[in-house]
Amino acid sequence: MPRHRWARNCRQHVAVMQDISHLQERISRTPSNTKVPEAILKEAQALLVTLYRRRDIIATHTVVDALCSYPGFDHEDLSIPDVDPKFILRGLVYATRASKRRPPRRFKLAVYKFWTELKRPPLRRAVLFQALAEEFERDSSGRTMHSFLATSHVRFGRYRTCKLLVLPVAEFYRAQDKADALALWLSRADEAGVPICASSPGRKFLKEADTEPNALDTAQETYTPEDACVMRFRDDIRRPLKKLKKHLDAAQLQTFSGMSEAARARDWQRVLYCYSDSLKSNVTISDACLRLALEAAVELEGIHSATALRLVKQARKESLDVETIMQTLLLARIDGIGDQQAATRSSASVGDAYRLIESLLSAVQPVYPHPSELVYNRAIRVCLQNSEFEQTIKLCMQLGEEHWNGDALFQVHNFASLLTVAVRSKDHALLQKLLEALPGRPYRGHPICKWSLRRARFWLEQMIAKTTSGEEKQKHSDALESLEAAYQNVMQARAQAHWHFKAKLRSIARETLAPKRNYESVETVYKASGPGHAAAIYERSLGEDTNLSLL
């Protein structure tokens, strides 16, 4: 930088410091009323316009901190026509050191300012999300993210925060290919009680974010209901390909490229040929290539393809970890069994779905000896849909033996399934045992527990209305009375859990903020050492953050 330009900038810095010091002095002499005096507010707004033209973030949050001494100072006072809201938002959230705690008053203003600016047109909102995401990314500890999300959750609700804040910032990180920032953002959202999966667009983002573009153009083709499970399998098997490609060596990448090209052309035989040819050439089997080969086998032979199972067994012999792939294949096949039973429900007998699932699990026993909880849960759902109640109980018990040391009520999903079986099969003894075991379970306040009890109550009320026998109606009434008592206890537990969670969020939002400013004020430095020394301290405080251009 030329010397004359440096001298001019230094003089401008000194002038800015003098203006800030003058503003702080006026504020200190003015009584702290509920509202900011009009003259001081206009002076501060004019100073913010100057700082915006100079792109001076540090001085901006110094001015805002001075105005925060007025209890009536509001984020609407920062709506200045000549200043970009993005600059104001960054000034409110910014700290010289990214991991430094922000003053609580200024940080709360940042939250309200952000939610107010969300009413702007979409292009303006995109700029706000970008500013917020970039500022969050500076803090590698995630404390700023956590505090902002927790405050938004408390003030604006769980669903709105998930849909209007968590999802757009996650999409920005995904578009910029910032995997570390995205992982930190999603983990902090979970801790703040606003997981991205709480909204339907968020669940869609999780499902499709990592999915490789499909080889087929599904919009131009017509599929029968029997192909629905094949389509779901294709999406599931392709989802991790984008990440898996990054770990391939040169030979594996060449094989994968040839298979991908054949898949785009719908030449499934050539996909399998490329895969087998690579094995003959002693190319190490990769997860990505195996997934494309399985997709080709399923497209050619259907979801119950024998070739697909043979390819998985062959890969396992080559010491490839196939548990995740086998789980994906099993889930699709169990879904296929469910679709098949739904289509032939009028002619099917009770227990057909369970027998098909048992034979399927037996067939994959050498490759996949211990099915995951997800596989068991999918099988339980298919049996419940086909009203196979005894078989559902067997699967629930198998799941408990396999994963939870014999405790079939370890997870809330199993409790909900058994409760459904007990009510729909009119097994009042099983229902009573489940209700007696519920108070000692940690999931007593879980939403699934509440929903399953409410649904069971509805079924019992329907049974009482339709029953003509007095004795049977009395049994249903007694069961309904016990169920109602359990439901009220669950609602009480949910209310307590919700209260404690909200209190925890408030404490998190407070703990991540500083109780007061713990750095030397510009006014003190200016009075003690004069404008030259204050400007020097100001220059040093910029450090490595001097490049703060927002354009």
Descriptive notes:
- The two termini are 21 Å apart.
- Helix 19 runs antiparallel to helix 20 (389-403).
- Among the domains are: 9-210 and 522-545; 409-414 and 425-513.
- It is built from 25 helices and no strands.
- By secondary structure, the protein is mostly helical.
- The protein is 70% helix and 0% strand.
Essential attributes:
flat; 551 residues; mainly alpha; 70% helix
Distance between the termini: 21 Å
Spell the H/E element sequence: HHHHHHHHHHHHHHHHHHHHHHHHH
The whole-angstrom Rg is 31 Å
Total number of β-strand segments? 0
Task: Summarize this structure briefly.
By secondary structure, the protein is mainly alpha-helical. The protein is built from 25 helices and no strands.
Provide the fold topology.
Blueprint lengths: L2 H27 L8 H17 L2 H11 L17 H9 L10 H14 L4 H17 L4 H14 L1 H18 L3 H13 L8 H9 L19 H11 L2 H4 L5 H15 L3 H13 L6 H15 L4 H12 L5 H21 L8 H12 L9 H13 L3 H15 L8 H13 L3 H10 L9 H20 L3 H42 L10 H21 L9
